[in-house]
Write a structure and sequence with these properties.
There is one protein chain. The protein is of the alpha+beta class. The protein is built from six helices and ten strands; from the N terminus they run αββββββββαααααββ. The protein is 22% helix and 19% strand. The protein has a four-stranded antiparallel beta sheet with strand order 1-6-7-5, with helices on one face. The longest helix has 15 residues. The radius of gyration is 20 Å and the shape is elongated.
């Protein structure tokens, strides 16, 4: 699942290309909104909220201002194309097509795709904690939320978007490694929880301007990360084999990786 920095960069590119432009056509290829037509609406803003994307459109005639809420989940992505350009993914994977005079924005394999009145956005993103890359970032509030469940593992607390929005499985593992914290440590027992939260934000900020993600400072393939997806391989610092647990999730989507020597329990 994409991390918050990937969603932030996606929103920025869509914003730069489409904000202020009027839609000449829209095509929603999801049953709930198959008959929706936003032609004539102006793209007011595209923004990220944690891992959620919000396209805001102006009111048209008697129809109120609406927001397109999407979430990439595991397979989703948004692409920008010039009119007439060939798409890089199959057409049957497209869920939304938004056309202006200059651009086509195509949302492929979106995990969530829904239209709602802009006034109701809180219904879909109001539960989120402070956004690590947003103007609402509040480290103290994020810490307060994490500490509200003191016996919960720090690995679970970091990934809970209700605590702080934007951390995914990659940055969770890398953050805890860089701070030397075992992932199964209860939140209340983490010696420097503010340092953990600060590190998570530093990693997202450092990578938000580029498509590739690195926590080691090395962007060469296979050398980008300290522990993430390196189970059984030697730690880059101490050569101890990296360990992994799925935290009870059989899909392994919420797994966490760590070095038992650099992150003692």
């Amino acid at each position: 699942m994409p991390e918050g920095d990937t969603v932030w960069l996606t929103a920025r590119r869509l914003q730069q290309a489409m904000a202020g432009q009027r839609l000449i056509d829209s095509d929603f290829r999801v049953p709930a909104h198959a008959t929706a037509d936003l032609a004539g609406a102006t793209v007011l803003r595209v923004l990220a909220r944690g891992k959620h994307l919000l396209h805001r459109f102006s009111a048209v005639g008697e129809h109120p201002a609406v927001t397109l809420h999407t979430h990439l989940k595991m397979e989703g992505s948004w692409h920008l194309y010039r009119p007439g350009s060939r798409w890089r993914r199959p057409g049957h994977q497209a869920r939304v097509v938004l056309r202006t005079q200059d651009w086509q924005a195509v949302g492929f394999s979106l995990g969530t795709c829904e239209l709602l009145p802009t006034a109701d956005e809180a219904r879909v993103v109001g539960h989120l904690g402070p956004d690590l890359l947003g103007p609402d970032w509040d480290a103290d509030e994020a810490l307060r939320r994490m500490l509200s469940t003191p016996r919960r593992t720090v690995a679970e607390a970091l990934l809970d978007q209700r605590n702080l929005a934007g951390v995914g499985t990659l940055y969770r593992s890398e953050t805890l490694f860089l701070r030397g914290v075992h992932p199964l440590t209860p939140v209340a027992e983490v010696d420097d929880l503010p340092g953990v939260v600060s590190m998570a934000r530093r990693l997202l900020v450092a990578n938000r301007e580029v498509a590739s993600q690195t926590t080691t400072g090395n962007r060469r393939r296979g050398e980008e990360h300290w522990v993430f997806k390196r189970s059984g391989q030697p730690c880059r610092r101490c050569r101890t084999p990296i360990e992994h647990t799925d935290l009870g999730d059989p899909t392994r989507e919420r797994g966490v990786f760590w070095c038992p020597d650099c992150q003692p329990r």
